[in-house]
Write a structure and sequence with these properties.
The complex is a heterodimer of chains A (262) and B (409). With 262 residues, chain A is α/β, with parallel strands linked by helices. Chain A is 21% helix and 19% strand. In chain A, strands 1-2-3-6-5-4 form a six-stranded mixed sheet. In chain A, strands 7-8 form a two-stranded parallel sheet. In chain A, 25% of the residues are buried. Chain B is 49% helix and 11% strand. Chain B contains 17 helices and six strands. In chain B, the strands form two sheets. Chain B has a three-stranded antiparallel sheet. In chain B, strands 4-5-6 form a three-stranded antiparallel sheet. In chain B, helix 2 (72-79) packs antiparallel against helix 3 and helix 4 (108-137) runs antiparallel to helix 11 (270-296). The chains are: A alpha/beta (262), B mainly alpha (409). The interface between A and B is large, with 52 and 59 residues.
Chain lengths: 262, 409
């Protein structure tokens, strides 16, 4: 029977995992340990629903509902000096929960504090853009759309950013294949020359060091010069490669022996 | 999408409204001043830029995707290819993120070596900035002088790790090698030479140069509000008068123990950023000079002792059975960090370089996001360039010091 390969996550997997192995967790600590974070959380809880909050590796992590994202960031920016939104991106949990996890990495420069705001949205749902608050979200949300297909509502320019405009699929999804299909391998040829040129151009050779010994067009043949573009595939004289014989060097002796080839 | 054919060319994301008098110019992606693969679509009214649209992605290699399909140690050399001018900074940022996730700390000697390499790397990167910035503006000779010193610095790097650009000189949990003999003496000689050249070659050539000042002063103005809003960090943020350096504010490695200053400029323009880079080189030199006596006081251990995650030394692997078994498992399967997530910011020569790693307890990262400073510095071009002249566009691009390896990833 053929081995079953799941389609919802086609990424690399560990080939062996001990069946008694249980992954430990990165330690979490309570928000009350930090005065600044606990105050921020308190104020936040007054206006919105905070699902979970804790401190992990020196940064506070807050889980909120996706519809509150703009409100939370606005509060953090205007009342708590979180002047910079360092990063926005997502994590694909479609295979497990049918959801994306979106994170906003926030920075307070005056107190040197960092908070990560996390929210989960269902597949196909959109999230409100935070560009009116932080212009850095302009590129970051475009990248998130490009990589995951998560649309940010009211974004000024919701277009792909890294991949070509007409690219199919979103590369950072776990369902995205690791190798291209046939259409992908002919993409440039089809776009530039047209499908009929596939035969003329031939498949792409990805080996940058590849050498065709019968190619008289691109490779010179020192000592065996031929006419340019002459076909020598059948009538070429064999020129076997010579290897030097292994030689024994006695390093205990004062002088090295000469190479046998001389 | 517009369907392209031979008569109607295909311009991505562009509307041609010919009723006004503007002209659309494609700047790059093969422009020598585009610092790699930047395509900038400029809408010009005369010589004035009325709309700028940075189009990126020409160097996209899917490094974040590769990270999800490589074990943690396998991915480390790939980080070299992010900001290829300052590879050690990337290696280090990644290694630090994984170390925080694992909850381990590098031994003291490794920390000293890493900090030295990071600062040497900052000097290499800043010299490159100075050279290309001057070259873009037209000061050819500075390029030659700066590359001469950069060559010495890269020789030092080569003596340490064998590579000049793609260093991979930092490992998760420490460094692979001790400093070679005589390296610190050469380093000291290089720093003296660098400081001498800064005072006697670069600054006299540029700082009070009339043409240099005319080309830089008041060009590419980014104020503090814009810099914060657009996510600019590093010299651009400090050039806007915001004193924020992660080495100082959120110290990592040995920066908490070292004595150095963070230069700030409130000029907001390219000239201020140029001055910052010069001053930061002096500070880096000062930092390395403090590290040299610290090195001599350390124990020779180079890698952290955490057998669950990090292989033992070669000597132990070759002599002890259990160390060899651990090493075999770590090489063939890869380390399995605990479940959790981490975001670690570091101050790379370009700005805040951070790695977000989400681990699900597997040998492969579930998600790795590289927060690259140049990505956001490219984003602000669409704001800064509007209202400037075409001749100043090149100044702004080179002043922002963007490297496309990390913009496109």
């Amino acid at each position: 029977m053929r081995k079953y390969t799941p389609k919802d996550n086609v990424q690399a997997k560990s080939y062996y995992t001990d069946r008694f192995w249980v992954a430990p967790f990165v330690p979490k600590s309570d928000v009350s340990e930090d005065a600044h974070f606990s105050k921020l959380l308190e104020v936040m809880k007054e206006s919105i629903e905070v699902k979970d909050a804790y401190i992990q590796i020196g940064q506070m992590i807050i889980y909120i509902n996706p519809e509150d994202n703009f409100k939370v960031l606005k509060l953090m920016k205007e009342q708590y000096d979180y002047a910079m939104c360092s990063e926005i991106s997502a994590v694909d949990y479609l295979a497990q929960d049918g959801e994306f996890e979106i994170f906003y990495q926030m920075l307070n420069l005056k107190k040197a504090k960092r908070v990560r705001v996390l929210t989960r949205i269902k597949e196909g749902h959109a999230i409100e853009s935070v560009v009116p608050l932080y212009n850095s979200a302009n590129f970051a949300e475009r990248e998130m759309y490009d990589m995951f297909g998560i649309v940010a509502n009211n974004h000024p320019f919701m277009k792909r950013i890294l991949m070509p405009d007409d690219w199919e699929g979103h590369p950072l999804l776990k369902t995205y294949p690791l190798e291209g299909d046939e259409a992908a391998s002919w993409y440039e040829v089809d776009k530039i020359f047209g499908k009929e040129y596939r035969d003329v151009i031939g498949p792409e050779n990805r080996d940058p060091a590849s050498i065709d010994r019968y190619d008289t067009k691109r490779f010179s043949r020192v000592g065996y010069e031929r006419e340019f573009d002459a076909d020598i595939s059948s009538a070429e004289k064999e020129a076997p490669i010579e290897y030097s014989k292994a030689r024994f060097v006695n390093y205990n002796k004062s002088s090295k022996q000469l190479d046998e080839r001389r | 999408m517009q369907q392209p054919n031979k008569l109607v060319p295909f311009f991505e994301n562009l509307n041609f409204e010919r009723d006004d008098n503007t002209m659309v110019v494609n700047f790059g992606p093969q422009h020598p001043s585009a610092h790699g693969q930047l395509r900038l679509v400029l809408e010009l009214d005369g010589e004035m830029v009325v709309k700028a649209y940075p189009d990126i992605g020409y160097l996209h290699r899917g490094i974040e995707k590769m990270a999800e399909n490589m074990t943690y140690n396998e991915f480390l050399p790939t980080t070299d290819r992010l900001d290829y001018i300052a590879s050690t900074a990337n290696n280090y940022a990644y290694a630090l993120a994984v170390e925080k996730l694992l909850g381990i700390e590098a031994p003291r000697r490794a920390q000293v070596i890493r900090t030295m390499l990071l600062e040497l790397n900052r000097i290499i990167s800043h010299l490159f900035f100075l050279a290309t910035h001057a070259l873009d503006i037209g000061a050819m000779s500075v390029f030659l002088y700066a590359f001469r010193e950069r060559e010495f610095a890269m020789d030092l790097m080569e003596d340490y790790c064998g590579a000049r650009l793609t260093h991979s000189s930092v490992r998760i949990g420490g460094v692979p090698l001790d400093l070679p003999e005589g390296w610190l003496v050469q380093m000291m000689a290089f720093l003296d030479k660098l400081e001498h050249e800064l005072d006697h070659t670069y600054e006299p050539l540029l700082t009070e140069n009339r043409i240099w000042k005319m080309r830089l002063e008041g060009v590419g103005v980014i104020d503090a509000e814009d810099a914060l809003s657009w996510g600019c960090t590093g010299p651009i943020l400090r050039g806007a008068g915001v004193q924020y350096d992660i080495r100082k504010e959120e110290p990592y490695e040995l920066y908490g123990e070292l004595d150095f200053d963070i230069p700030v400029s409130d000029r907001n323009d390219s000239y201020g950023r140029y001055m910052l880079h010069i001053e930061e080189m002096r500070q880096s030199s000062k930092i390395i000079k403090q590290l040299i006596p610290m090195y001599k006081k350390t124990e020779p251990q180079l890698m952290a002792h955490a057998p669950q995650y990090i292989s033992a030394s070669k000597e132990e692997i070759m002599t002890q059975n259990y160390a060899l078994m651990q090493h075999f498992v770590l090489v063939t399967q890869g380390m399995r960090p605990p479940k959790g997530e981490v975001y670690v910011p570091t101050e790379s020569p370009k700005g805040e370089l951070g790695f977000y790693i989400k681990s699900e307890g597997e040998p492969y990262a579930y998600r790795l996001k590289c927060r690259a400073p140049s990505f956001y510095h490219t984003g602000i071009l669409q704001k800064v360039l509007v209202g400037t002249y075409l001749a100043d566009v090149v100044t702004m691009i080179s002043s922002s010091n963007i490297v496309f390896g990390e913009v496109d990833r």
